[in-house]
Amino acid sequence: MTLEEFNAVEEQQVESAERMQAAGKALEELLSSAQRQHCLTVGVYESAKVMNVDPDSVVLCLLASDEQDEGDIALQIHFTLIQAFCCDNDINIVRVNDIQRLVEIVGNAADNEEPKDMHCILVTNPSQDSWKDPALEKLGVFCEESRCTNQWVPNISFPER
Asked: 0.85 exceeded by the pTM?
């Protein structure tokens, strides 16, 4: 490997890390904004219901898991079915490996309620022009760029606090 090739690879790695960090920040902003607008659907089954009734209202699907969930076959099957549905309906999908951080951003159930299932979160847009968010546009570009590199469901890491 020549010095020029090494520098090019190094620049790509830095650019990729910057893109990932920007995407993580945009996702955090989008989730907060969508929650304020009441445009979030939280939970695998709740998300499946929304996608079945009105798939055109879904603008982003977030799949989340922790290391302990990797062995959960049922959850992985749900993820596969959700991913297939999203691909068929041109819905951007991202994965996050930090459910605890999602709970911090989105919040969990009240004390008297059962904890929310944070494995799948949909960002919906009730009507086509009612809600435009710059963070959503940034994530859309990130997903499109990821698909160009054959990464159909990109992993996003939230920025450090």
From this structure: no
